[in-house]
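The methods section describes the discrete structure representation at length, but only in general terms. An entry of this sort, consisting of the sequence and the corresponding backbone structure tokens, reads as follows:
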Amino acid sequence: MRPARSILAVASIWTAATITAAAGGQHLPNLLAYGDSSGEVRTFSTSGAIDLNGLFFQSLGTNGRSCGTCHVPANGWTVTPEALEARFDASDGLDPIFRTNDGSNSPIADVSTVAARRAAYNMLLTKGLIRVGMGLPPVRDFDLVGVDDPYGYASASQLSLFRRPLPSTNLLFLSTVMWDGRESFAGESLHFDLSDQANGATQGHAAGPALTDAQREAIVNFETSLLTGQAVDADAGNLDAGGGNGGPQSLAKFLGISGSTNVFAPPPFTLFSAWSNDDGQGRFGDARASIARGEAIFNTRPITISGVNGVNDAIGQASFTGTCTTCHNTANVGNHATPLPLDLGIASAARRTPDMPLYTFRNRATGETIQTTDPGRALVTGFWTDMQKFKGPVLRGLAARAPYFHNGAAATLEDVVNFYDERFGLGLTAQEKADLIAFLRSL
């Protein structure tokens, strides 16, 4: 049985840690365990410990926020709705994460009472979504011709885009910074990109001044020291036992092994192949065998890939046979080995929920229109062909950071698997779904 996780416990751990840090400067020990829906997630720092008195956890702006406000160790280095609810209740919605510049559904939302704040921060509380305000790029091949914003704010001058904060861990595996790649610059290093992102986040999210070069370096050096992964599965036990290669420490083995740039590359996941014959062998046998089967499905289950802008159009094939690893092809990590923004239809009008704004865009050359809740990379490049394209995130530490996709559309890993099963007509059996979910939880 998987353990019920105390929502308050997660928030209390983090509150106690930050209070202690403020009082005298403390560290979280390496491999400190935090419970999640699957077992335990842990972080390994190549610096030896996590310094809670470092700049990452200091307020460098004007609204009380730090990087750690939205990137919480206990929540897989992002935020989760359950922990946010606890933070709201403990502070009556005055915790630094609850700020109108990007935490509320609209920057002009009423936050004068507790009830008003609960309504104003609804998207953050229910889906862990931050509002990203972006205008149209000055050079573009499309126009915005319609806005349906339930919060009465979004316009061509500033669209409201609701997105999950990406984890600030496992960053050395990134090929793209931010969901839409807006912090990845041609010809620059990942270190440069992360430095620019830290500066932009401080000026935007924390409403602060520009960081000094020394401050940028300190934050980037801290972030790139972190490796996070699921360490214990409630059913399968320690994920690095019995030949398993899970947990955060194993991630250090894969640094510099980026995977393949070929979409027809061999399977990159080999974490749990040693468990493929564990069925019925001892206390954890059945659970470990399920994880191994799920890994095999992820690596080898044939998928007819069609209608995916960013893949099919890129290789000039309307349809071809691939696997999950066609796109999730960084070895044993699962993100894109090279920049690969994709449109899977997650932001399409057909999948819109009533709490999301809906935008109508028109192609200047063809007159074609599209309705979407988020134009994605198109707002960065100005290209119609980049509409609704987003990167795939690092898959390690998934169990600690629900909900999933850029807009939190999948509340659970079951929802993620069901989305892909439906999207690509996989025809997965109930057992295959269970095995695939067991594998994803183990990452």
About this structure: Residues 94 and 434 are 40 Å apart (CA to CA). The chain has 13 helices and 13 strands. The chain has a mean pLDDT of 92.
